[in-house]
Design a protein that fits this description.
Shape: globular
Radius of gyration: 29 Å
Oligomer: single chain
Number of strands: 8
Structural class: alpha+beta
Length: about 240
């Protein structure tokens, strides 16, 4: 998607969309170098203006998820830089950014322990029911929001649990179950997206290969690899054979 990045992904979740780029592993400044693992860096940029408190808080949450998923010991003394650009924020921005980050890391070929997926839930205003994927207006009106990020492993480990507002334990468990089910569908979407991309790249590679050609150029008809002999030498060869 982005030519100057090692990997990138654009992800939509409802009307919310995020563009994530990944650079690295690459050289890291000496003052930030770690001898036993890679240095991770996450930068969040708003749609307009300069980054503020919201972006700084999201950077910390995304860094937490990335540290759980990336095999940092494979790249000591290196830097993996992740940049998250908000294109449109209509709710569930953190979950959208986490999912886009996973796709961008896979696109960059960064070694992961497993892929991960996130989903947001909210408590409907005036009720005790919990629903998925809140819009921005619903986030402002609800009494509580939940964002869960799950690692896709047999145990289904939780990489992140971020909540706001007030809620009861039963509502938290309901949100957990809803988000876990939705995360499985998001991982299935990852698989289909990567299969389509790899299939497209494979078809493009086959189309670029010359068909019916060989490594050696074709010779004109009637020619051979050896030059023709002079008439006198040819007559001598025939005489010897006779």
């Amino acid at each position: 998607l982005l030519h100057r990045a090692d990997g990138s992904a654009k992800y939509w979740q409802g009307n919310t969309s995020v563009l994530v780029s990944v650079k690295g592993p690459m050289e890291v400044p000496i003052r930030r170098e770690r001898s036993d693992r890679a240095t991770l860096e996450v930068t969040c940029k708003p749609k307009t203006g300069l980054p503020g408190i919201v972006e700084k808080r999201m950077e910390g949450l995304l860094l937490h998820v990335a540290a759980h998923a990336i095999v940092v010991t494979n790249h000591p003394r290196a830097l993996i830089s992740i940049t998250v650009q908000t294109i449109c924020d209509d709710g569930s921005l953190l979950a959208c950014a986490i999912n886009a980050m996973c796709l961008a890391l896979m696109d960059a070929g960064v070694t992961l322990r497993t892929c991960f997926a996130a989903q947001s839930c909210f408590i409907v205003a005036g009720t005790d029911s919990v629903l998925l994927d809140p819009a921005q207006a619903e986030e402002k009106a609800c009494s509580g929001t939940f964002t869960f990020a799950f690692l896709k492993d047999p145990a289904g480990h939780l990489a992140l649990s971020h909540t706001t507002g007030s809620f009861e334990e039963a509502q938290y468990m309901d949100a957990w179950e809803l988000a876990a089910g939705a995360a499985g569908k998001i991982v299935a979407f990852y698989r289909k997206s990567m299969e389509r991309r790899l299939s497209k790249e494979h078809r493009a590679a086959l189309a670029s290969e010359p068909r019916g050609d060989c490594l050696f150029p074709r010779l004109p008809r009637g020619d051979c690899l050896l030059p023709r002999l002079p008439r006198q030498l040819s007559a001598a060869v025939r005489a010897v054979r006779a």
